[in-house]
Amino acid sequence: MGHDGGSPVGIYGQTLTATDIFTGWTETEAVKNKARIWVFAGLKNIRGRFPFPILGLDSDNGGEFINHPLYEYCLSEEITFTRGRSYRKNDNCYVEQKNYSVVRKMVGYRRYDTEEEQEILNRLYRFLSFYTNYFQPLRKLIKKERIGAKVRKTYDTPRTPYRRVMEIPEIPERTKGSAKTGGLRV
User: Fold this and answer.
1) What are phi and psi of 142, to 5 degrees?
2) How far apart are CA 36 and CA 138, in angstroms?
3) Could you give the CA distance from residue 55 to residue 77 in angstroms, rounded to a whole number?
4) Residues 64, 35 contacting (CB under 8 angstroms)
5) Number of domains in the chain
6) Torsion (CA) 164, 49, 17, 156 in degrees, nearest 10
7) Which helix (H) or strand (E) holds 155?
8) Which run of H or E residues covers position 79?
9) Please, what is the average pLDDT of the chain?
């Protein structure tokens, strides 16, 4: 997500958003620009903050994601690498929703283009991670059925991403223990 302030001229900051589809766990990272070196470093930082191993990466189709270094990294780390369909901007709806509810609602639409602003955004994102993952319950869609012209949606009981992580039996207790401490690193 770009922080161009309405003027896409020059170099300006970007925010990477990573969301686990199953739990809703979300991490964000501000990077200098869309250059693959910064995106790659940002993704590695995000990976270190997830309380469980990342098994797959489903990226946008931009060159900042679709490149050999990232692909080789995913191969070496045994991370499944896929991408969205061409010309389908809404394929990553989980991330798009978090781009609004986490990033835009908190930092707005201003232009952020200095290293100081990037550092401030990243400090803010550490606090937001704690807030969104431990205190913001999510409802997950369980079922959708069409009844004539209407669509009836059924949701599960709202739970925070942290609570969803704690309920997964495949996640080792040691990993769950590190998530219980909050992992707030500022």
Assistant:
1) -95, -45
2) 32
3) 9
4) yes
5) 2
6) 0
7) strand 150-155
8) none
9) 86
Domain that holds residue 49: 14-134
What CA–CA distance (Å, rounded) separates 82 from 141?
23
What is the rounded CA–CA span in Å between residue 177 and residue 145?
Answer: 39
User: Which of the pair, 152 or 87, is modelled with greater confidence?
Assistant: 152
Q: Which of 68, 99, 82, 91 is nearest to 1 (CA)?
A: 99
pTM greater than the 0.70 cutoff: yes
Unique residue bearing structure tokens 């369909």:
85
What is the C-alpha separation between 5 and 17, in angstroms, rounded? 18
Give me the pLDDT at residue 87, please. 66
- Do 122 and 164 fall within a single domain? no
Which residues, in sequence order, are bridge partners of residue 138?
159
Q: What is the mean pLDDT of residues 13-29?
A: 91
- The reply to whether 150 and 95 lie within a common domain is no
Q: Cα separation of 130 and 52, whole Å?
A: 15
Same domain as 93, residue 169: no
Please check whether residue 22 is in contact with residue 54, taking contact to mean a CB–CB distance below 8 angstroms: no
CB 1 within 8 A of CB 103: yes
The answer to whether 140 touches 128, Cβ cutoff 8 Å, is no
